[in-house]
Design goal:
By secondary structure, this protein is an alpha+beta fold. The protein has a single domain, classed as Conserved Hypothetical Protein Mth637, Chain: A. It has two helices and six strands. Strands 1, 2, 3, 4, 5 and 6 form a six-stranded mixed beta sheet that branches. The longest helix is centred in the middle third of the chain and has 14 residues. It is globular. The two termini are 19 Å apart.
Length: 99
């Protein structure tokens, strides 16, 4: 999965966001964009979408998450602290296999 890059203090995760969904959902992996597809409830106004993304990924990973790139874009890069590439792949596989 090319959406994950290991760093010394965590990982970087490329995501592609679709706002205005019925619920927050990690819906799949886009091979062409090399990004995890994420659907969110919030509208992209006044930082609401970014807050939802950070809150939900923090819950899923049980660690600190921040957006380091793409604050005003559908394509974002998240920094997830204290997780390895292997950890994140396991988390994503669990989510995607239980849909």
């Amino acid at each position: 999965m090319n959406a994950i890059t290991q760093t010394k203090d965590g990982i970087l995760l490329n995501i592609e966001v679709s706002p205005r969904s019925d619920k927050f959902e990690i819906s799949g992996y886009n091979d062409w964009r090399e990004a995890v597809e994420v659907r969110i409830k919030a509208h992209p106004q006044k930082g609401r979408a970014n807050k939802e993304i950070v809150n939900e990924f923090s819950k899923i990973t049980k660690t600190h998450v921040e957006i380091i790139s793409g604050h005003k874009s559908h394509h974002k890069i998240l920094k997830i602290y204290g997780k390895s590439e292997t950890d994140m792949i396991k988390i994503l596989n669990l989510i995607l296999n239980h849909k």
